[in-house]
Amino acid sequence: MKDKLKEFCKQLAIDCVGIANIGPYVELEQRLKNRISKGLYTGFEEPELKKRVDPKLTMPNVQSIIVCLFPYYPGFIEDSNISKYTYGVDYHIVVKKKLEQIGQYLQNQIEGFEFMSYVDAGPLVDRYLAYQAGLGFYGINSHIINEQYGSYVFIGYILNNYPFECDKPLEKTCMQCLKCAEACPGDAILGNYNINPLRCRSYITQKKEDFSNEDREIMHGSNQVFGCDICQDICPHNQNVPVTKIEAFYKEVVSTLDYEELKLMSNKAFKRKYGDRAFSWRGKKVIMRNFNATHNQV
C-alpha cells in the first residue's frame, strides 16, 4: 500500500513522501518546553503543548502520519521585495487540495480509511514530522533541508488510521557553516539549531502589532516588505536546487509589490487582486506598514 501511495503522489508532482510515527514525541516536548521557558515563541504556534507532541489528541485512532514535501523554488527573479514562498498561489490552498486528493484516493483503496490533513496551521510541528519521516535534516536556521530541494519546501501531513510502515530520520545535519547566522539581519539564528523567532525578519513582517524600535532596526535597509529569504538564499544546501514541478508555484507569479499601487488601492481591491496569495493574509495595512519601515515612506 505504501508503494501505491507513493505512485499516486507522483501523479500529483509529489516525489517526497514519508511516514512518521505517531509519538508521543517526548524529546520534542522537552525541546519545546525549553524554548517556551526562554520566550522563544511567537504566538502563531498551537497553544496547547500536549497537542503539539501527541497526535492522538487530534485523532484518537491515528496509526501513522503521511508526510509530504512540496518544493516551491520558482527560479531566480531579480528585484523581488517579497519572500519566494509567496510568489505563486497561496500554498495553503494548493497543498490542502493535494492532501485531500491523497486522502480520497486512499479511501477508495482501503476500506474504512479515515484521515485528517493539515498544512501549516495544524496542531503538530510539521518540520519535526518531516524529520521523523526521513524527508530531510535540520539546518542551523531550524529549517528542514531536503537532499534534492533544499529548504524551499512546504510541508503537509495526513493523520490516518492505516498502519503504514514508518520511515526513519536521516542521521545527519546541515554542514554547520553558520553563513545563515552571520547573514541574519536580526541575529535570530542562535547557532544551536534554535532561533529567536521574535527577531526573525520574516516574523516581524507578519506580526500585527506596531513595530518596536528593535523591529525597525532589523527592517531598516531592506526592500523586503513580506517575509525574508536571507538565511535560505545564502545556504550552501540551497544552491542549484531545481525549479518546482508544481505549476501553481511557478506560473503567474507575483514577485514584487508596488508601493504607489497599494497606496491607491482599497482593502477590498487588495483582497480581490491578491487574495489567493500567501502575503495577503495580514491585509494591506500590514504591508504598507512594512513599506514605511523599510523605505521611510510617508
Structural descriptors:
298 residues, alpha+beta, two-stranded antiparallel ribbon, 12 helices, 6 strands
Short description:
The protein is an alpha+beta fold and 298 residues long.
Task: Describe the model.
The structure is a single chain. This protein is of the alpha+beta class and 298 residues long. 34% of the residues lie in helices and 10% in strands. It contains twelve helices and six strands. A four-stranded antiparallel sheet has the order 1-2-6-3, with helices on both faces. Strand 4 and strand 5 form a beta hairpin. It is globular.
End-to-end separation in angstroms reads 59 Å
Mean pLDDT, to the nearest integer, reads 95
Query: How many individual β-strands?
Result: 6
Q: Portion of residues in helices? A: 25-40%
**What is the C-alpha radius of gyration, as a whole number of Å?**
19 Å
Query: What ranges have pLDDT less than 50 throughout 5 or more consecutive residues?
Result: none
Strand order, main sheet: write it out: 1-2-6-3
- Major sheet summary line: 4 strands, antiparallel
The share of residues in extended strands comes to 5-15%
What order do the helices and strands come in, and which of them pair?
Layout: H1 2-11, E1 17-20, H2 26-37, H3 49-53, E2 64-71, H4 91-109, E3 115-119, H5 126-132, E4 137-138, E5 144-145, E6 153-160, H6 179-183, H7 201-206, H8 213-219, H9 230-233, H10 259-264, H11 267-274, H12 284-295
